[in-house]
Design goal:
Elements (H helix, E strand, L loop, with lengths): L5 H41 L1 H7 L3 H15 L4 H14 L6 H10 L8 H10 L12 H10 L1 H6 L2 H20 L22 H15 L2
Helix pairs in contact: 1-2, 1-3, 1-4, 4-5, 6-7, 6-9, 7-9
Length: 214
C-alpha cells in the first residue's frame, strides 16, 4: 500500500496538530511553574521568618509549590505575579493560597486592582511616589488627584470615598483605551551652575580680554 494515501496523510496531519497542541500546553505549564517559583522566591525575601516557619524543609516547600500550582494553574503567569505584588504591598503576613486567589480575582483584564486594594497601595506607597512600583498607573494618578497629604492625614472613612471617586473615573478611562504612564522622577544634573560672584566675573572678563586681545 502506498504511503501517500489520503487516509494516512490525514492521520499524520492530525498527529502533527496534537503535537503542536501538546507543545503549547507544555509551554503554558512551564510559564505558570516559573511564575509560581518567582512568587515563592519573592515571598521568601519579604516574609523571611514567616516563610521559613511555614516551609521548614525542602520537602514541605516542594509539596507546597505543587499544591499552589494545582490551585493557580488556570491563571496567567502575569496575573499570578501581579497578585503576589499586591499581596506583598497590602499585608504584613505571608499570604495563603486563598489570599492569593482573592488578589487574582481583584485583577481584571487591564490589571486594575479593586478600589480598596488600590487605596491601601496608595496610602502605603514609598517615596518618591513616582518611582514606586505601582500595580497600575491609575493607582498613582488617583492618589495624586486625591492629594497625597489628604490621604496621609485623613481617616479612611473620610479619604477612601474621595480616592474611590477619582480611581473609578481613571479605571473607566483605562477601559476605554487610554494608556496612563507615570513618568519617573527626573535625575539631578551632573553639575549645578551657580551665578559667578563679583571676583569671578572680573577674572572671567580679564581672561576674555587676554583671549581676544582687546
Amino acid at each position: 500500500m502506498s504511503k501517500n494515501t489520503p487516509t494516512q496523510a490525514g492521520q499524520k496531519t492530525s498527529e502533527a496538530k496534537v503535537s503542536d497542541s501538546d507543545q503549547r500546553q507544555s509551554a503554558d505549564k512551564g510559564q505558570v511553574v516559573a511564575a509560581v517559583n518567582q512568587m515563592f522566591a519573592e515571598l521568601e525575601v519579604v516574609y523571611h521568618n514567616q516563610f521559613r516557619n511555614a516551609f521548614p524543609s525542602p520537602e514541605k516547600l516542594h509539596y507546597a509549590k505543587k499544591l499552589w500550582f494545582s490551585n493557580l494553574s488556570h491563571l496567567s503567569p502575569d496575573t499570578i505575579i501581579q497578585a503576589t505584588h499586591q499581596a506583598i504591598r497590602s499585608s504584613d503576613f505571608l499570604p495563603t493560597v486563598h489570599g492569593i486567589l482573592k488578589y487574582c480575582d481583584a485583577l481584571d483584564s487591564h490589571g486594575l486592582p479593586n478600589a480598596r486594594s488600590a487605596y491601601i497601595e496608595a496610602c502605603n506607597a514609598s517615596k518618591p511616589r513616582r518611582d514606586h512600583p505601582w500595580s497600575h498607573p491609575a493607582v498613582y494618578f488617583a492618589g495624586q488627584d486625591s492629594d497625597w497629604f489628604f490621604l496621609e492625614s485623613s481617616s479612611e472613612q473620610k479619604a477612601f470615598p474621595v480616592f474611590k471617586s477619582h480611581y473609578d473615573k481613571l479605571c473607566e478611562r483605562v477601559r476605554s483605551g487610554e494608556d496612563l504612564v507615570v513618568n519617573p522622577t527626573p535625575a539631578l544634573p551632573a553639575s549645578i551652575n551657580r551665578p559667578l560672584n563679583s571676583e569671578q566675573r572680573r577674572e572671567a572678563l580679564d581672561k576674555l580680554k587676554q583671549d581676544t586681545g582687546l
